[in-house]
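Reply to thread "Modeling small-molecule complexes from scratch"

Following up on the discussion above, here's a worked example others can learn from. I took a protein sequence and the SMILES for pyridoxal-5'-phosphate and predicted the complex. Inputs first:
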Amino acid sequence: MLPIIQNQPPPNVIDLGLGDPPLSLLPLELIRDSAQRQLARDDRSFLQYGAEQGDGHFLHVLADFLTRGYGFEAQPESLFVTNGISKSLDLICTLFTQAGDTIFVEEPTYFLALKIFADHRLNVISIDMDENGLDLAALTATLAKYRPKFLYLIPTFHNPNGTTLSQERRDRLVQLAKEHDFLIVADEVYHLLSYSEQPPKSFAYHTESENVLSLGSFSKLLAPGLRLGWLQAHPNTIKPFTACGLLDSGGGLNPFTSAMICDLIESGGLQGNINRLIENYRSRLRVLDSALQQHLPQLRYQIPHGGYFLWLALPEHIRSNDLRQKAPAFHVDFRPGTLFSSRKGLENYMRLCFIHYEEQEINEGVRRLRECLLEA
Ligand SMILES: Cc1ncc(COP(=O)(O)O)c(C=O)c1O
């Protein structure tokens, strides 16, 4: 049998590391209604090769949505429709780098981005973080030794460590990018999923600078299977994307899905779905937090203000990779810290995700994790 979805854990395992939304929260009804309305119209244009930057009407609708969501004006000319953040990263590497070039990432970082950078044979250097995100002193010291093509960071509700980069650091980072002539590639996939404090401004705010790219996606706001996202940048920075061979041949990315999502944004369905997810995820975060307080009070972590993940520091003597080898016997799983390190560090950390399971399974998963840790 060929698998039908990615990353499916064995049926008896509670995989607290899994970062995918649960099937029950993927909004089939909303998408069905929008698709039915769109397909009933007498308009065939979305079945044709699409405009390179994205359909003009969709770009306006998306800009209005982002203006409301981010709290400052988004311009349609600064938007480029993508197949999601993974494809955006791949295109950025294709267009702005060559094999052997140096790029900077955070330590820790989103592990699957590391794989994309490896596909492009890039030299990855990681910069330390603290509880306020990227450590700019460490960045400045590393800039004295290397000239990176870009810095990839997850500034808001970070995957895996949940941190958010302060406004002051964002502003300073934009200055540093100008001074040292590198691109900031801000992966803002969780920015609109905030459960308590509103985050500082998205990097889209800084796209008057040609050095800034802000990446967004509908994967976490609606459904990953849509493969639709956007990129915000100065119109001059967008030009290489719209002029590249991939778009010359295939046209704009995903005009069909854009048409369905356009209706979903205009009808208010997208905002309604985001509100529903926020309520739900906020309560799942509380459940995971109290289960950890009850069963594993010895583990240290910071409560994130949004996103999907908790990043736990294990007692000094425990290596999360060793612990993971024992986990199948307890029918539980998590993601070890080393996965998120490009220098084989972070050995005594683990990532848990609080959005995938319902209350009962979260509690049971943490109870199993406790058993597993008692063995360590
Ligand atoms: C930080 C981060 N970036 C990107 C992605 C993938 O985004 P997309 O589905 O838009 O390719 C994920 C998904 O887990 C993620 O956590």
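What I'd highlight from this example: The first helix runs from residue 28 to 40. Residues 19, 84-86, 110, 154, 159, 187, 189, 217, 219, 224, 229 surround pyridoxal-5'-phosphate (CB under 6 Å). Questions welcome below.
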